[in-house]
Write a structure and sequence with these properties.
single chain, 0% helix, binds copper (II) ion
Length: 126
């Protein structure tokens, strides 16, 4: 089974051009806190929870991914236009729930391959 290790979180481009994103939800944030993906490309999301139940949503889309501890939730996503999508928890998960929001940034697809792996989980590099 594939392991969640800190250095494999983030976005990784696969041989067919699609992207795999690995994330962790925990009280009260999503890790990585900001993630970059190419626009217009299939994104295969894998996410687990470090504690309770969370629900990952992307503002401006209909995507909702329920996140549970002890299991990996998978979803197929695609962000057709470049831009910022706030990632917001929609499952009440405790006192800090309302502040549980991070960001996904879709960049023009031709820009993505030039990003270093460290930049794909860190919007400050943009
Ligand atoms: Cu929550």
């Amino acid at each position: 089974m594939w392991k969640f290790v800190e250095n494999n979180l983030g976005a990784e481009q696969d041989a067919d051009g699609s992207v795999t994103v690995r994330m962790i939800a925990q009280q009260y944030l999503f890790i990585p806190h900001c993630i970059l993906v190419p626009a217009g490309v299939p994104v295969h999301l894998r996410i687990t929870s470090a504690d309770g139940v969370h629900s990952l949503t992307f503002n401006g889309t209909d995507y909702t991914v329920k996140v549970l501890p002890g299991t990996i939730s998978e979803a197929q996503l695609q962000f057709s236009r470049a831009g910022e999508y706030k990632t917001v928890c929609r499952e009440f998960c405790g006192a800090g729930h309302y502040a549980m929001r991070s960001e996904l940034r879709a960049v023009p697809r031709e820009q993505f391959p030039a990003l270093q792996p460290g930049e794909r989980g860190n919007c400050a590099a943009q």
